[in-house]
Amino acid sequence: MSLLSKVMDAAFQGAGVKAGLEIWCIENFQLVPVPKSSYGKFFSGSAYVILNTVLLKSGVLQHDIHYWLGNDAKEVDSVIASDKALEFDATLGSHAVQYREVQGHETEKFLSYFKPCIIPIAGVFSSESGDPGSESYRVSLLTCKGDRAVYVKEVPFSRSSLNHNDVFILDTASKVFLFSGCNSSIQERAKALEVAQYIIENKHNGRCEVATIEDGKFVGDADVGEFWSLFGGYAPITRDVSCTVQKPEIPSRKLFWINPQGKLSQVGTDPLKKEMLSSDKCYMLDCETKNFVWMGRRTSITERKSSISALEVILNSQDRSTGNHIIFLTEGSETAIFKSYFDGWPQTVGLNLYEEGRGKVAAMFKQQGYDVKELPEDDSEPFIDCTGTLKVWRVNENEVSLVPVVEQAKLFSGDCYIVQYTYPGDGKDEDLFYAWLGHNSIMVIPFSENYLLFSTNQISELVSLLKHNSCCYAQIIEGKEPAQFYLIFQTLIVLKGGTSSRYKKFISEKGIADETYAKDKIALFRVQGSGPNNMQAIQVDLISGSLNSSYCYILQTGASIFTWTGNLSSPRDHDLLDRMLLLISPTWQPISVREGSEPDVFWNALGGKAEYPREKEIKCYVEDPNLFMCTSIEGERKTSFIIFNFTQDDLTTEDALVLDCHNEIYVWMGHHANIRSKQQALTLGMKFLETDILVEGLSLETPIYLVTEGHEPSFFTRFFEWDSSKAQMHGNSFEKKLAILKGQTQKLETPKRSSWKASDLSSTGATTDRSRRKSIISNGLGRSVSPASHVLGSNFEGSNSRRFSSPSPIVRKLFRSSSPDRGIAGNEASPDSHRNEIKDGSLVSQLVEPISNSGTPSPFQVDESEVDDVLETFPYERLKVMSDDPVTGIDVTKREAYLSHEEFQEKFGMTKKAFYELPKWRQNKHKAALHLF
C-alpha cells in the first residue's frame, strides 16, 4: 500500500529539502514550529518532533526523525508526537528512521545534534511568550554523566545529592562550580567543563567565573571553602556501597511478530535471518536495552500506529519503557546496527543511487517548488602538498635497500616496499611512510599476525634509523592503494614477479614458474588513472578475461606492441594510453586495435578469445566517514560504538579511535592511550576490519593509516574543523579543556590548518615551478624532483572546509577567549595587539602582552620574589606533564610558576622575571620544550 498519498500536516510543508535540523512542538494539540533561536531548549512539560536532514554524497537526502517526550508531558501530547513522526515519515517516502527519545534517556545520536548538551527546562513551551523567567537568580545543582554524550540532569540542591562517582555543576549567580567525584573519569570531567562553559555563556552572558573543586581536597583553597559554605559547611560524602564488577554479557536477541491484536508472538532467537521478516507484518527485535520496530513495506499506516502503541504498552508493563531506546524502521531503510543483529544480511550496493539519485531527488523537490542543487563529481585531488620528494626502499629478508630514482616508479608484485614521502607542512617538512605489500608477497609472508609484525617491524626500524618517529604510517596492499598514493607517485607501473631473494627462494621451493616481468616476455598491462599526474599501468594475467570494455590495454609480445581501446573508454583514457606506451616501450611502433576489430594474432597471444566484462564500470560514491571509540575488554581491544557528529574535541588523548572512511581507515592514538606501538595500532585496525561493525563489507586489505596525537597530517585533519593550537597542547583531556576555558591556548602561533586542493593553486606559479623542477631521467620518464610538481605549484592556500557532508549539530561557541566585559583573555591578542618595528632594516611583528580589565598585571607577570610569596614550590619531576607522581590542585596552565628560583634558572636558563617579560608565544615554546605545557 502506498503511503505517499497521505495528506501532509501543514506544519511539515517544505520540511526536509535542506540539510540541517528542523524542530516542532505539540501545542494545543497542534504542531508548532520552534524558532531556530530556541533550538536545544526543551521543556519537560512538552513533546517535540525533530527532523535531521543530511545530504549524502550520492545526492540523496537522508532523514532521521526523533520525537522527544518530556518527563512531565501530557500523554495525549506524547501520542500526537508519535503519530506525527510516523505520518511525516510516510510523506517523505517511508525512508526515514524514527527514534523515540525520553527525557534523561536520549540516544547519543540525538544528543550529538546539540553541543555540548541539552538541559531540560521546567514548564511548557509557548509560541506566544518568551521563556519563563524570575527576578532572582535560582541556584541549581546539575549532575553530568557520560564521557562522550553528556546527560545533564538537575538534582536537589543538597549535600546528599553529591557522590564520588559523578561530576556536578553548582550554578550560582556569581560563580559556576565544577565538583569532580574522585571516581569520575578524566573524560567525564572534561565534558562537564564544556557544560559549565555553556552555562556561563548562555545564562551569564559570559560574565561569570568557573571554579574547579576536586573531591576530597578542601584545605587552603578559597573556592573550595566557598563551595562547601553553600551547603552549610563541609561534611564527608557518604561512601557508595562497593559492588562487584560483572563481566559484560552479550544481550540476547529475540524477534517477535506484533499481531493485529497487539500481542507479541515470538518468531525466533539467535541466529536470526532476514527471511524471518515478512513485508506485510510488523515485528519487534528485542535486544534488552534497545528495541527495534520493523514495519513491512506492505503494512498500512494504521497497522504501524497500532503496532507502536501496542509495543509501548507491553514495555510499560515490563518496566522497561523509560530507559529503553525504541527505534522504528521501514523495510528498506534498515540501519547498519539493525542489520548486524541478523546473520548474513545481504550486501546491497546502491549503484542506482549514484547514477540516478541526484536527478530524481532534485526533480522531486523541484516539482514542489524547491531548488535543489546537484553535487559535483568527486574527482581525485591531493590533500597534501605534492611538491615533496620520494624515496623507495625494497625489503629483502630483514634488510631494506634504496631503489634507484630511475627505478622507483616500478613495483613488483612479489616484493614489499617502504615508501617515504617528504613534503612541506605547517612550518616544517612532514614525512609519510607507506608499507606497500604486493599480492604475491603475501604468499611469501602469510596474511597473519606474523605478516603484520613483519611490515611494522621493518618500517619501525627504518623510521627509527631516519629519526622520523613522529611521522604518519600507512599499510597498503596491491590493488587497494588510496588515491593519494598514486598522486605522490604521479606515474606508477606494477609488474608481476619479484626481485627479492625471499621471493626467488619461495618460488624455487614451491616449484612455481618465475613470472617476473622482462622486456622479452609477453605481458598485458591495464592502463588507468585520472590524468597525466595520476596514471598507472598494472600488469594483469595474460588471458582474455583480463580485458574490460571500460579500460585501455597494452599488449607486449616478443615481436610487436598492441594497444587495445575498450568501447566504453574515454578520450582521457586514450591520452593516458599514449603516455604509458612511451614509458613501457618507447622505441616500438604500436599496432592500434579497437574493441571488436582484434586480429587473430592478438587473441592468440592471450591464449584464445574468451568472455570478459563489457558493462560500464560505475564508480561507487564513498559515504561520509564515521568515528569509532575503542574500548578494552579483558585485554582484547574491540571497537564499541560510533561517535555521531564528531569533532576534533572527540579525539581525547586517553583513547585510541578509528576513523572509518570506507575505502581507508585511520587509527588515531592519543598520548595517554593504552596503545603505544605501531604493532598494537595496526592490530587494532585489523580487528576493526574483521569486525565490520556497520556491515559495509570492509575488505581486510583496506589501507590502514596510523596517526599519533599532535602529528596529524592534513589528509586526516580535513575531516574536522581543525584547530592546530588544540592539537599541540599537553596534558590530559581535563587539563586541556581547563586551559582552553581559561583562554590559555596559542592560536596565534599555530593557525588552523588548511586542506590541500588542486584547485587552490595558481596556474602561473605552477607553470614556473614546473619548468624549474622538471628533469628527464634515463628510462625516458619525465620525472620531477617532486613527484607531482607539474600538478601543483607553490601557492599553498586552501580552505578548511570538510570534504564531506554531515549532520549539522547545534554548536554553541564554547570556550570563548574574550568578551566585552572581560577584555582579552589568556594569550589571545586583540586587533591592536600587533605592532611593527624596524630592526636591522627588516620589519619585525611583535605581540603586545594583554592586560586585564583592571589594568593590573597578571599574578604570573610580577617579580620572581612576589611569585614565591603566593605559590608553593614543587620539584620539576612532579610538575612536568608526564610525571609519574604529578602534583594535583595546581593551575596546570602555569606549571613553571611552581618551580623554585634555582630549578627555574637551571631549566629555563633565565630568571622568572626575564621569562615573564617574554611574549606569550615564546613562553609557551620554552614550556613545551620542557614538557610543562
The CATH architecture category of one domain equals: 3-Layer(aba) Sandwich
Number of helices: 23
Unreliable segments of 5+ consecutive residues = 1-6, 243-248, 349-362, 364-368, 370-379, 446-451, 633-637, 744-808, 811-869
Which percent range fits the helix content? 10-25%
The CATH topology annotation of one domain reads as Severin
Structural class: alpha+beta
Percent strand equals 15-25%
Q: Could you report the average pLDDT, rounded to the nearest whole number?
A: 77
List how many beta strands DSSP finds: 38
User: What is the first-to-last residue Cα distance?
Assistant: 64 Å
- Per CATH, the class of one domain reads Alpha Beta
CATH superfamily of one domain: Severin
Tell me the Rg in angstroms.
32 Å
Strand order of the largest sheet: 2-1-3-4-5-16-15-14-12-13
